[in-house]
Amino acid sequence: MRTGPILETEDLTKEFAGFVAVRSVNLRIERGAIHALIGPNGAGKTTCFNLLTRFLQPTRGRIVYEGRDITALKPADVAQLGIGRSFQISAVFPHLTVLENVRIALQRRRGNSFDFWRSKRALRALDGRALALIADVGLASHADAPAAELPYGRKRALEIATTLALDPELLLLDEPTAGMGREDIARISALIKSVAADRTVLMVEHNLSVVADLCDRITVLTRGQVLAEGDYKTVAADPAVREAYLGTGHA
Q1: pLDDT of residue 246
Q2: Which of 168, 177, 174, 226 lies closest to 200, judged by CA?
Q3: How far is CA 102 from CA 42, 72, 142, 189, 213, in A?
Q4: CB burial class (10 A; 0-12, 13-18, 19+) of residue 17?
Q5: Whose CA, among 29, 62, 83, 100, lies 20 to 30 Å from 150?
Q6: Which residues face 103 on adjacent strands?
Q7: Which own/partner contact pairs does 62-69 have at CB distance under 8 Å and 24+ positions apart?
Q8: Cα(42)–Cα(8) distance, rounded to whole angstroms?
Q9: What is the pTM of this model?
Q10: CA 2/CA 32 separation, integer angstroms
Q11: What is the spatial distance between Cα 97 and Cα 204, in angstroms, rounded to a whole number?
């Protein structure tokens, strides 16, 4: 794997009608790392994700991916470059099976919307890759189950599988363990560690135990600004971080 940053931002700022949600954020995401954005509610974490994936236009600043300025690109173009994203709310088709959900994501990767009109035989050419992805996220025994019948944690695993179907080099995960019990958290944490073996992961996460266990580097945001950055031991020992984040009761 190549070294150096895969993604950088310079003076990234987003204002909404005079309210500054993200202020002069400079990020450097190293290739092959698991990097976390943490901070209290309203700190600007999800807004940062929306800027990086181009769902929002920055008020000012630059976003550089693989040495290329992507600030003006459309979300679909960013995804094609190799940035994949999951959302806080699981985004799968509930009445389709696990296999069908992943196959649709593979069709999207092909960039051919007319695949929906192809024969079942042609579509099933994608089943091998789809089933491999499903096995990778621990859902092999659920391939024919409707997504709506999956427990919450396994729906999140399915969403990660559909994101991986796009073959991203940089995977953005927005609160991947939110609302989960201990068993599901352990399963998703192991999955994140596994998929990070050959790609870069940037995640927003409130569960500090997950962050401590998984992340190589952490950026702490508060009120839209970078408060601290470093490994978990460094940021956890920072008095300003304790006051702004750890002391708020979010864990």
Answers
A1: 55
A2: 168
A3: 32, 29, 12, 21, 28
A4: exposed
A5: 83
A6: none
A7: 62/9, 62/10, 62/11, 62/12, 63/7, 63/8, 63/9, 63/12, 64/7, 64/8, 64/9, 64/10, 65/6, 65/7, 65/170, 66/6, 66/169
A8: 22
A9: 0.86
A10: 8
A11: 28
pLDDT digits (tens, 9 = 90+) for 80-120: 899 998 865 566 889 999 999 999 888 876 555 545 555 56
Which residues, in sequence order, are CB contacts of 236 under 8 Å at separation 6+?
A: 208, 212, 242, 246
Distance (Å, whole) CA 143 – CA 62: 41
pLDDT digits 0-9 by tens, 115-155: 555 556 656 778 899 999 999 888 999 999 999 999 988 99
More confident residue, 58 or 250: 58
β strands within the chain, DSSP E: 5-16, 19-25, 28-30, 34-38, 60-65, 68-69, 83-86, 170-174, 200-204, 217-222, 225-230
Answer whether 136's CB lies under 8 Å from 194's CB.
Answer: yes
Residues 6+ positions from 110 with CB-CB distance below 8 Å: none
| Long-range pairs for 208-213: beta carbons < 8 A, 24 or more residues apart | 208/38, 208/236, 208/246, 208/251, 209/251, 210/177, 210/185, 211/36, 211/38, 212/236, 213/189
